[in-house]
Amino acid sequence: AFISVFYSVSKLALFLATPITPQERQKDAGFPTDPAAVKAMLFPLFYNLIWVALFVLQHSGLRAPIVKRFYQAIGLDLAERSLYNIASSFSLLLLLKNWKTAPNQYRLWFFDAETNEALWWFMMGSHVLAWIIVYGGSLMVDLPELIGLKQTFYDVNDLAPPMSYKSRDLQDYYKRCRHPSFVGLSVVLWLTNGMSLERCLLAVIWTLYMYFAWNTTREDLEYHRQQLQRKRAELMRVTK
Asked: Is residue 171 part of a domain?
């Protein structure tokens, strides 16, 4: 599971961070007015929409309680998290492999990052920083448990499932939000020097999906506030 997640996320990072070159820009066309050109532009959009929708459905569907009960019924509840990550990685790789671009590409904006060194470094630095934030957030929400490694380790050592050792408030929070960094992922989705309609479609759908799927509550915010105060108090005792 770890290898599949690492590989698929790496492919996604390269896909999102690769800048558009002036040579590619020269092949672009203005917004089409001819019906045939409009059809040629819309086909990749609908085709890509299918793969994006399949990823979203898989990513949400396998979290459903009925799926978890099915895993428990067949004795695979231990591997539920690993299977979820493998399926997510596979669907993400399928999306990237089958991604299509229109022959008459239209871009909402374009900035030449090849000749503008400052812009290139800004884009690359922002993407790297955003992924570091995402990775750091993953560590904070228990990365080994998130990708399914801790479940196997605990079972081998005859321990209870790792989630049972966490507080009820934290368990409730994880049910609503397991992915870290809405801001970091939004940055890598939207920050590009050449925003095509296909890329915009991906960014809009995934941003909305993150916004509505990660439905944290006031109780979650209060829990984090209490934990922050607790950590500060512990740090003050250590430094005295």
From this structure: yes
- Cβ atoms of 159 and 192 closer than 8 Å: no
Domain containing 156: what range?
A: 1-17+30-239
Give the confidence band of 240 by pLDDT, cuts at 50, 70, 90: low
Spatial distance between the Cα atoms of 191 and 28, rounded to a whole number of angstroms: 19
| 204 token code pair | 């809009």
Rg of the Cα atoms in the chain: 21
- Into how many domains does the chain fold? 1
pTM: 0.83
CA 41, 46, 51, 52 torsion-angle sign: positive
What is the C-alpha to C-alpha distance for residues 11 and 13, in angstroms, rounded to an integer? 5
3-state secondary structure of 110: strand
Single-letter amino acid, residue 204: V
pLDDT digits (tens, 9 = 90+) for 82-96: 888 899 999 999 999
The pLDDT tens digits of the residues spanning 124-145 come to: 999 999 999 988 888 777 878 8
The closest of 208, 166, 168, 162 to 185, measured between CA atoms, is 208
Distances (CA, A) of 165 to 108, 148, 168: 49, 15, 9
